[in-house]
Amino acid sequence: MLTTKHDDPNGKLGWGERLAYGSGGFAFNMINGIIGSFLTIYFTSAAGLNAGIIATILAVSKVFDGISDLIMGRLVDNTNTKMGKARVWLLRMCIPFAVSTMLLFYVPAGFPDMVKYVYVFLIYNICNAVCLTGMLVPFYSMVGLITADSYERGLLGNIQQIFQTLGNVFVNSTFVILLTKFSENPNTIYTQRAFTITLAIYCALMVVVSLFCIFNTKERVKLGAAAQAEAENTVKKEEKNENVMETVKALLSNKYWLLLTLGNFVVFAIIIFYAMGTVFFSQYVLYDMSQYGMLANAISVAQFAIMFVTPVLMTKISKEKIYTFGMLVMAIGFAGSGMFTAPSLLILSNVLKGIGVGLAGGMALGMVADTVTYGKLKTGIDTVGMGNAGISAAQKIGLGLGQAIFGWVLAAAGLDAALDAQGIPQPESVSTAIKFLYGWVPAIMAAAMFVLFLLFYHCERDIKKLEAQQ
Q1: 57, 104, 287, 356: which sits with the fewest CB atoms below 10 Å from its CB?
Q2: Residue 200 has pLDDT above 70, yes or no
Q3: What is the number of helices (H) and of strands (E) in the chain?
Q4: Average pLDDT, whole number, for the chain?
Q5: Beta carbons of 242 and 248 less than 8 angstroms apart
Q6: Mean pLDDT over residues 9-22, rounded?
Q7: All domains in the chain, ordered by first residue
Q8: Cβ distance 257 to 387 under 8 Å?
Q9: 81 forms bridges with which residues in the sheet?
């Protein structure tokens, strides 16, 4: 067992437990990355479905996704088991997540088109709104439950981001290779057989690594127990903590949680634009999928490398300043993708994107825990589950809406999967749309977030002021 031996919520964690927690990010991000990067091209090229209809299904599904995150957050808040509040949900949901992912990439070929679209809607929502939510919300909540130390929270967030990036690098480096190996059609790698076998390998690995994370971490921060102790002295306090609407009101009055929720929405929309964009850019702009690994890993490797620097930066600079600077670097990198087409400059732009995502993403989880602490000091209401659920909802809505926008734009640009089967290039309008989505749209979004956080986000400063008053 790699779990740190002590039970002190303010004590330092051992590297074994830090890495064990991070491994959970590797597990779910492998699958999440595959869904984000390859689901649309699977639906269009392997299953023969219309990109515009698929985009609409993904967009409508976000309504259920947002609701499920709030429900899951409340379930985490109200869970009290020997394993704690969060880890038990990872144990319950990792296998259902694997099975539903397999079904998502297995649209039955013999079904009528309308039945196929209904199948996609149902399985996508089971996989994403139920199973992935059941993994993400508890996993993110674990940061605030494993430790109460601000630095340790930031470090855990950084470490899990490193492991998420490793998951991306692993998928970027192996997924297309495995699709090619298991494809029975020499003219295309996008076959049902290739996707089924490849997904089975990744899903099995996800379950194994999730179990490793679950049984090598410990929840020390007994927020629920503390709230219950207060409630025994004041009934009114208990009612306030147990009331869902009061919890929601507390979150909506938390300016830093709201701003960070917006930031996470934008970052994850950006992530899906470059994740899908790299696949479609390689397929329909370069017409060479062998370039996918190079372009994708330019981002992922840079992101991975910068995360070894951020723990040092945190000892000298606040998490929020690192996050804000990351937004600026992201904006510059995406602007480069919009301006340049030369391979060397394209790779350099992707390196800047990776650095920016690494700086911002590595800080995000620790900053979420800080916004919950700020809210607790302001209102006395513990929102750890609902707070992380809201952040998770924003991230998944960003991913889903990004996928939907990408699909709508491709459909409007004239993408026709039937042309691929005939070996005919897509219209020039398709490559133009992909270039715009890959560069300028994310650049504008990141620049806007840089300005907002630079001007209005000062959570760590205000936490110190509130603590001094109490």
Answers
A1: 287
A2: yes
A3: 20, 0
A4: 86
A5: no
A6: 93
A7: 15-217+244-469 (1.20.1250.20)
A8: yes
A9: 84
Q: What is the pLDDT of residues 274-295, one digit of tens each?
A: 888 888 888 888 778 778 888 8
Instruction: Say which amino acid occupies 116.
Output: K
Q: What is the DSSP string of 199-242?
A: HHHHHHHHHHHHHHHHTT------HHHHHHHHHHH-HHHHHHHH
pLDDT digits (tens, 9 = 90+) for 36-49: 889 988 998 888 88
* CB distance 260 to 371 below 8 Å: yes
More reliable by pLDDT, 207 or 5? 207
**Residue at token pair 């809505």:** 397
Tokens 């957050």 locate to 73
pLDDT (0 to 100) of residue 385 = 75
- For residue 52, pLDDT over 70 is answered with yes
**432 Cβ partners below 8 Å, 6+ apart?**
413
To 5 degrees, how large is the angle CA 357–CA 349–CA 331? 50
In the predicted structure, residue 118 carries a pLDDT above the cut 60: yes
Dump the DSSP string for 289-331. GGGHHHHHHHHHHHHHHHTTTHHHHHTTS-HHHHHHHHHHHHH
Instruction: Find out whether 289 and 413 touch, Cβ atoms under 8 Å.
Output: no
* 37 contact partners, CB below 8 Å, separation of at least 6: 171, 175, 275, 276, 278, 279, 296
The two structure tokens encoding residue 223: 């927020």
The dihedral of CA 336, 338, 339, 344: what is its sign? Answer: positive
Structure tokens at 187: 């003219």
235: pLDDT strictly greater than 50: no
Q: Which two tokens stand for residue 400?
A: 């889903």
Residue 259 vs residue 307, higher pLDDT? 259
User: Which pLDDT does position 94 carry in this prediction?
Assistant: 96
- Other residues' Cβ atoms within 10 Å of the Cβ of residue 124: 23
Of residues 363, 380, 271, 288, the one with CA closest to residue 321: 363
CA gap 215, 367 in Å, rounded: 25
> Per-residue pLDDT for 315 more than 60?
yes
CB count, 10 Å around CB of 417? 18
> How big is the chain, counted in residues?
470
The residues facing 84 across adjacent strands are: 81
Contact 311, 152 (CB under 8 A): no
Q: What is the DSSP letter of 12?
A: P
Greater confidence, 322 or 227?
322
The burial class, CB within 10 Å (0-12 / 13-18 / 19+), for 282 is buried
Q: Cα dihedral angle (176, 180, 181, 182), rounded to 10 degrees? A: 100
The whole-number average pLDDT for the span 135-146 is 90
Taking Cα atoms as reference points, which of 366, 332, 76 lies closest to residue 224?
76
> Could you give the CA distance from residue 376 to residue 466 in angstroms, rounded to a whole number?
10
